[in-house]
């Protein structure tokens, strides 16, 4: 009869600690510190620009859907200056 080996389940934290300690041992064994350099696919300024562009596009899409579909108007009219001038005149009317 063969005895079964029982293993205790380990948590994620224990796995992380084990990996960290292994890395630290490798660093100390080599005698110099490893430097991990993370290369980003997109620089931060590109990400900010991309977010701004997406915000403008989503705002325009929201205007068209809100004015054309929900407001039962013509969707292309949502982008005309005269429409917004009329809305401003209604809001500022006393």
TrEMBL record:
Pfam families: EpuA. Residues 1-30 are annotated as: Disordered. InterPro entries: RNApol_su_b/EpuA (IPR024596). The keyword Transmembrane applies. Residues 1-16 have a biased composition (Basic and acidic residues). GO terms for cellular component: DNA-directed RNA polymerase complex. The chain crosses the membrane at residues 44-70. Keywords: DNA-directed RNA polymerase, Membrane, Transcription, Transmembrane, Transmembrane helix. This is DNA-directed RNA polymerase subunit beta. It comes from Metabacillus endolithicus.
